[in-house]
């Protein structure tokens, strides 16, 4: 078969899929898919391209839809041997089951580039895989190696898969490419998706952990301002303004600039950003955040507050011109601060707090800022600053009832003797 790698497993030749859809900056509806085997339905690919193309306004949404639709097309071509328009309810259930336990040969240990440049042309990367195994940060620190056998399709991934597939088939119906939505008629999604009682757990830092983290950032900035004034500003912005990492890094969609901080007619400061779904929002800037901005600008030898004409990047590169574009760069900066904090927590005897901080990611800072503010600010104000689509999302961060529930349970006894 042309364009399909194979691997021998138990004397059975299993097809290895090649990437179909390129990255957002190279996504091209006119792309040549001749490298795919004759098993692939060209009309399926064309309609999928049109659907995915409509999500180019948001990097994260584009990646999610591309990933799930691509997996479905590979499964159709190489496993079920059916077109998208032929799939019925049972087929979708089979596909979901397949995603929960894909063949080892379809699972990678890393996330290489989908396409590589060869002879001045972008060609599919043969090391790419549709699924990727991952391990926790603690396991990685302990030297545990990645093993495809440990692949897990999480509960959250299942929910996202159902939502994306249903949206895709609604589009296919509108385009008159399919005459039904097989996802919508799956009556017992509960056999795949568990129902949960109460609020889902929000991954965030404890009050002690956050105080140690920001103190560590401050100490780092005092010791080496050239490197860590940037660290201190990033930690302050992620926590105080609930920013996502993608809202700090520059992209084709949005490039954070100094004049995105602005003062209104009442003398109040705001910050404009563009978040999920390519939605622009204004964030109220606290006095503490304004102080952090002044310190950052002073370090950059700029006036303490930006003018409307100041289009300089909010996070300039350490070397060269322009803004930081890589979210990985920001992750490394935050992780370094976390690592130094863990050391300090252990030194001070807070070993459990240090252990749980090992699991923390950049996004925990957003969750922490929202959780801390919703205790003292009207939830509608936190909702709008966070960019939540409804107050129900913000309510997930309110844990007062959980605290009261636990307090009432602590005094329960098992026997009169205890």
Give the count of helical stretches.
Answer: 14
The level 1 CATH classification of the largest domain is Mainly Alpha
Q: Residue share in helices?
A: 40-55%
Succession of helices and strands: EEHHHEEEEHHHHEEEHHHHHHH
As for the number of domains, it is 2
Beta-strand portion reads: 5-15%
CATH topology category name of the largest domain: hpI Integrase, Chain A
User: What would you report as the Rg, rounded to the nearest angstrom?
Assistant: 25 Å
Distance, first to last CA: 72 Å
Shape: globular
Q: Main sheet?
A: 3 strands, antiparallel
Unreliable runs: 6-12
The CATH homologous superfamily of the largest domain corresponds to Intergrase catalytic core
Please name the CATH architecture of the largest domain: Orthogonal Bundle
Query: Would you tell me the structural class of the helices and strands?
Result: mainly alpha
Q: Strands across the major sheet, in which order? A: 7-8-9
Number of strands: 9
Which whole number gives the mean pLDDT?
Answer: 86
Structural description of this entry:
Strand 8 (269-274) and strand 9 form a beta hairpin. The chain is mainly alpha-helical and 418 residues long. The strands form four sheets. A three-stranded antiparallel β-sheet has the order 7-8-9. The protein has a two-stranded antiparallel ribbon with strand order 1-2. The model is unreliable at 6-12 (pLDDT under 50). It has helices at residues 42-53, 59-80, 89-100, 137-141, 155-174, 207-223, 225-240, 287-299, 327-347, 351-357, 363-373, 379-386, 391-395, 400-409, and strands at residues 5-9, 12-16, 107-108, 115-118, 121-124, 131-132, 261-263, 269-274, 280-284. It folds into two domains: 5-191, no CATH class; 207-404, hpI Integrase, Chain A.
